[in-house]
Amino acid sequence: MSADLDKLPSRDLLAFQLFDWLDTGSGEERETLMAMIDATQRVAAEAFLPHYRQGDIEEPRLEADGVHVLPAIHQAMALYAQMGLFGASFPEELGGLGLSCTASLAIHAGFAAANVSTAGYPMLTAANARLIAAFGTPAQVDRFARPQIEGRWFGTMCLSEPQAGSSLGDIRTRAVADGEDELGGRYRLSGNKMWISAGDQNVSENIVHLVLAKIAQQDGGLPEGSKGISLFIVPKILPDGTRNDLAVAGLNHKMGFRGTANCLLNFGEGAGAVGWRVGGEGQGLAQMFMMMNEARISVGMGAAALAYRGYRQSLRYAQERLQGRAVGVRNGAPIPIFNHPDVRRMLLQQKAYAEGALALCLYCARLVDQGGEDAETLLALLTPVAKSWPSEFGLIANDLAIQVHGGYGYTRDFDVEQLWRDNRLNPIHEGTTGIQAIDLLGRKILLSDGRPLALLRDRIGDTAGRAMETAEWAPAAAALLDYWRHVEDVVAGLRALGGAEAYDDATLFLRAFGHGVLAWLWLDQVLHARGHADSAMESGVAFACRFFFESELPQADAWLRIVGQHGDLARTMPDEAFA
Amino acid sequence: MSADLDKLPSRDLLAFQLFDWLDTGSGEERETLMAMIDATQRVAAEAFLPHYRQGDIEEPRLEADGVHVLPAIHQAMALYAQMGLFGASFPEELGGLGLSCTASLAIHAGFAAANVSTAGYPMLTAANARLIAAFGTPAQVDRFARPQIEGRWFGTMCLSEPQAGSSLGDIRTRAVADGEDELGGRYRLSGNKMWISAGDQNVSENIVHLVLAKIAQQDGGLPEGSKGISLFIVPKILPDGTRNDLAVAGLNHKMGFRGTANCLLNFGEGAGAVGWRVGGEGQGLAQMFMMMNEARISVGMGAAALAYRGYRQSLRYAQERLQGRAVGVRNGAPIPIFNHPDVRRMLLQQKAYAEGALALCLYCARLVDQGGEDAETLLALLTPVAKSWPSEFGLIANDLAIQVHGGYGYTRDFDVEQLWRDNRLNPIHEGTTGIQAIDLLGRKILLSDGRPLALLRDRIGDTAGRAMETAEWAPAAAALLDYWRHVEDVVAGLRALGGAEAYDDATLFLRAFGHGVLAWLWLDQVLHARGHADSAMESGVAFACRFFFESELPQADAWLRIVGQHGDLARTMPDEAFA
């Protein structure tokens, strides 16, 4: 295998998770999918990977005619479009390839591992087109979704404003009704949008901005809160070929993830940017969040891919780098650092995090494909975990990848420092970890009817039941059930506590909940890996699973106990005592 | 207070830790020291802080005549020298200021918070001069230490080589005897040294390299292992004014800490670099490590200072940034994010880490000043903790500082991303965390006579005894004693296990040990903060201490249990299962 392909999720691992574990597709479909994965990974290795470092050094730059990105990104996008991948998971009648969500996410993982910044452009474009396909009129779909599915136009999501990051109810972008045409209700938009990834670039023929804004009331005021938010299609170039009234006000200079241009956009500095409403008035946030879930799983997969690549690169480094001797041995030649227990521990921990995160994201994609009420309910519960767990623990994995490299890992001669910087965005964008935590504990648990958690417990019970039938994994199954009883006790305590206080440790709860999910998924995988034809695969899954139960779950249990204590220190600490 | 001084350790906090807690100096000395801290912090704010970002952007560059650094670094060093600070902790008879180690470390904290890269130059210079002052002949001290104490010459430590990072026994730099002169035994050195911080610059008149090398034997071979290592003074400019035979072969391009030039040095490309031996043959490593302890505490303090600055900057940001509302509140104006419990938790955690790390380093410096066998033994035990704990947890604090800033924290418009990148070096240089762990568990505990840990337990028992007499802190005292009994049980188990296996989880042991030390130091501080004239100070210490006991120690207890299980997963995992 080439050294480059070695940085992408291995085909053996993907085959195990997709087929042996998640039972995706039938015989022939599997062959087709693996051929697709092979083909796309070659493109990822040849057209995305080589400019990984260059994209970090030569950031997008703002010139008089807009944002310019690396020529290598143009070439990568052209190849990506040629393969039809912008439409990977769209139905054939819309010009897509008709792949399942699981298959297209597995393909995305390869591109994200190769170059997470460049992979950001099609990821956002697909999310945009899917939203229009779901909620737009046939004319809107034809005009704005299809060119994105073909990869000729790219898309963005314009949510945040300088004064409204996480609190979208406070947005001030204004939409004034301006009649109606064949593309639907027409509006003139004005306002400033912040943190717009791919907000401008010189790659695609046009850019379709999906913009959250509030429709001005009769008195000229804007409705309060998030219920007044509507969604608008605002193309950079209007259907008549003229430029819409929107401008790039600036670029954000980020610590990492630099290949994806991140823009401050001003809409309507003149007569107002022309936009067409998608769906009903006031439906903007609900529609956006339905699609945001897809984006959140993609973010999680990006984080998983970065973690995986760091794992592979530090593994190879450890196998080649000679340094030191075994404890107690004074003479003889230096040995590969791979043989030092502490280095092996750092590698195993990375494996458990990275491959676990990959499994989590694919599991969620499988739920999308399965559909139906139960799968949707479970998906909604797991989405904040799929977004945040790979982001938080993938970052720790990348930190370990640096540490394995020692001083070399701190230099820009090796990729691991960039992986770490790139991954640091993931706990922030598309909803910070704190926001995910409130979503999980609030909407999905305390404010729900209890069904989401009950559904999850059923699946965990099922896995544990099967593990109980084996001598080897029965103790882990018992530990898993104990852990989830603990989770339920903590939830019951928080429910009884009620009020705002219940959310004091929401973030730690999310973390502990995520570890419980990962322990379950590792145990479930291990049951499917037993007797695998590839004994190294069986063994790798088994060791990662045992590591998770021996070294991770006991820590998570401590987190649960802390949450269960309902401590109020941070909230009650006097303001002046922080000084 | 100016916004700039607000980024440096607050005088109230330093006064509390230095005087109320550590009982440093008497009344008048305290006033003098505080005046000194005020004066040096002004210099730090005016001459070190302003080029913090610039030093990151404009890295040192290698030109034909050597390495060039920012003009601002020249100016900062000139001011630093004018104040006599290169000689801060040297005795007056050597031209120093005669400050205690504690005082000079408190002063260093201000410079490190302002600009950790620029502060690296004098930090290394002082460590170099102290080594020569301790082991050199009077002629060597006059010739090579005094100009450094005056700040005219700078110093370096040349240990690592491309093939020998952590395993110094494998170094290949060769020293061939070349007679003797008034400066001692003279040698010709040849070899390559890697990772040399401040290895070249255009600031000081001369550079004194302290070089570890092996003296060639009669047969031309080099002695094996670390016992054959000697220490040599190798100046860039020889006493006769000619250039010594050494060259900068390259600069390392780091992720952070960029203001400190990091060089690959080639010694003896021609007739051999002239060097004078310091101390006896084969004493090199022992001498170096005596001084390395000082460098390790300084590294810890640098990490603590970065953590502290991130805490302060994210605190100020949180107080000013308006976003969202309290849970359950839908209307009204956005509130400062400082009022959100999750943000307050991230701030309190930073405070507990940053101020705890500062306390740990000052405590160790106080042991240096106290001297005597007990203090030295305890210092040796705590040094790996003082190096690693602030490095590991200060980095987590900086990660939280980014998260408090949200998307803004990921841009280079705010300092927190640079603080995080800068701090990432600290778990690597001057001995990685893994190396510190083996030092703690091996040399300081399992291979010692047990006295170091017994001494520590005495001090902990003393603190707990005093806490037991208070109603408020008796439960924490009991938890602390429980925790340390657990540590001792784990140590006994590892001792019984014996062999290399005992070190499998040395890194996790170090982490848990460090948390136990920090819990102790927080409890000890809280007892000295009771009834403090400044009620905000008393309250701040109390909340940080309670946080540490409620939220940190339970996690550390889980780490101890994991270590105590003597798991062998990483060691026994088949090599091919990592793939």
**How many separate domains of chain A?**
3
User: Span between N and C termini of chain A?
Assistant: 56 Å
Number of strands of chain A: 10
Query: Residue ranges of chain A: pLDDT <50 for 5 or more in a row?
Result: none
Most extensive protein-chain contact, per-chain counts: A-B, 99 and 98 residues
Q: How much strand content do the residues of chain A show?
A: 5-15%
Helical content band of chain A: 55-70%
Which sequence of SSEs, written as H and E, runs from N to C of chain A? HHHEEHHHHEEEEEEEEHHHHHHHHHH
Task: Summarize the biggest pleated sheet of chain A.
Answer: 5 strands, mixed, barrel
Q: Could you tell me the radius of gyration of chain A in angstroms?
A: 24 Å
The coarse silhouette of chain A is globular
- Oligomerization: homodimer
Mean pLDDT of chain A: 96
How are strands sequenced across the largest beta sheet of chain A?
4-5-10-7-6
Q: What structural category characterises the helix and strand content of chain A?
A: alpha+beta
Quickly count the helices of chain A. Answer: 17
